[in-house]
Amino acid sequence: MERRHFLRNSGLLAGGLLLGNSLFARSSAAGPVKIGVIGCGDRGTGMIHSLNQMPDLFRITAVCDVLDFRLLAAQKLDKTNSWKTYTDYRKLLDQADIEAAVIATPLHMHYPIATAAIDSGRHLYLEKTMTYNIEQALDLVKRMQQRPKQVLQVGHQYRYSPLYYKVKEMIEAGDLGTITQIDCRWDRNTTWRRPTPNPSLERTINWRMYREYSGGLVAELLSHQIDFVNWVFDTHPQDFYATGGIDIHKDGRETYDNVQVMMRYPDKGLTANFGATCGNARDGYLFKIKGTKGMISLLTDQGVLYPEKSLQKEKGTVDGVTGATRITWNKDGGLPILPEPTKDGTSYALKDFYNKIQTHELPDSNVFTGARTAISVHLANQALYSKIACSWSDTYVLT
Fold first, then answer.
1. Does the CA dihedral 44-100-204-387 come out positive or negative?
2. DSSP per-residue codes, 77-110
3. pLDDT digits (tens, 9 = 90+) for 159-205
4. Half-sphere exposure of 333 (CA within 13 A, CB side)
5. Rounded to whole angstroms, how far apart are CA atoms 345 and 185?
6. 224: helix, coil or strand?
7. What is the Rg, in whole angstroms, of the alpha carbon atoms belonging to the chain?
8. What domains lie within the chain, and their CATH numbers?
9. In this structure, what is the dihedral angle of CA atoms 10, 14, 19, 21, given to the nearest 10 degrees?
10. Residue 274, SS3 per DSSP
11. Cα(241)–Cα(246) distance, rounded to whole angstroms?
12. Bridge partners (DSSP) listed for residue 271
């Protein structure tokens, strides 16, 4: 998507529709935003912990999950003994005092719950990947265009990390030179499977294993890195090539446990590789951005710039990383991008969500950027499971 499209969409916030819902007419003087959490699995519980650490910004008033034992576990995190509990998200959205909702459910439920939350007038923090398929992503874009004062933020946290912001600034300043290659991995040595107290709950608990509910490793892990590339270069992939299989865990799963995706961005002269396996944890998380002047190697909370040899002797500072102390990482000389590791990205993202609710501005990770990444993920999976190269269609209109 071109930058001018985002600017045009942002302009809706200043001159768009004035909705009558009183939820939009709040200020920081109104106190913490009253919020409900829909989905109390691993990610939902993590969100609850983060929200509990921000009592000046958010106050949880309700939680929802279809599994009773998860609701009971979530209730133990209620320090006020005041949260209402629901097994039906629609009843949570009917609760009058709720101003915003977090959706941290299985991927296939993102869209129906998001549309209900949007229609109810609530602000929405929607976990990644934004939607299960392309049609749903395009529909959410249309819906939110009609609600310019309502906030929908997507949980692609790198857009809020000081580290990844710094990397974006370095790339835009030309510190890496011409960038033509990006290599990403997110590996583990595990079945990626959760224990089930009852065999009848297999597909409910281990939804990531089944294509009816999940986008697999590409949606659950690699989407973060895909989104960052889209953001930094203000673009989207045009061509998608992929391969993989169920090569490690022959346990009835349908989503692949070993994947490799290559995306081509012809407008940027860029090729990016994204891979994940459940069969080896040595590399773990890798994110390498390679340019003619140097390479940046990123973890989730820290990063190092490796200048090309021709630049290593320049004054002890390299391309905007001023005052950095030379370190050794992977036995090679490098310069730390930030002096200290960053915090978990959720805290940065939630603080911005609160601020955007006050100002009605478009979040950095919004319905338009979320759709662009959701489409990228869907096309990557289409190429992966069909074994046929796929391309971005001009019919995917995000404006």
1. negative
2. T-SSS--EEESSHHHHHT-TT--EEEE-S-GGGH
3. 999 999 999 999 999 999 999 999 999 999 999 999 999 999 999 99
4. 13
5. 19
6. helix
7. 21
8. 3-159+346-365 (3.40.50.720), 175-339 (3.30.360.10)
9. 90
10. strand
11. 18
12. 181, 264
**Can you list the alpha helix ranges (DSSP code H) found in the chain?**
3-15, 42-52, 68-75, 89-93, 110-119, 134-145, 162-172, 202-205, 216-217, 223-233, 345-359, 367-386
pLDDT band for position 16 (cuts 50, 70, 90):
very low
CA distance 9 to 315: 44
Distance CA 200, CA 107 (A): 20
Q: Which of 266, 328, 320, 324 lies closest to 297, judged by CA?
A: 328
Asked if 344 and 50 count as a contact pair (C-beta separation under 8 A), the reply is yes
pTM of the model: 0.90
Distance CA 23, CA 381 (A): 38
Task: Mark 162-187 as b/e (b = at least 16 C-beta within 10 Å).
Answer: ebbbbbbebbeeebbbebeebbbbbb
> Is the pLDDT at 317 greater than 60, yes or no?
no
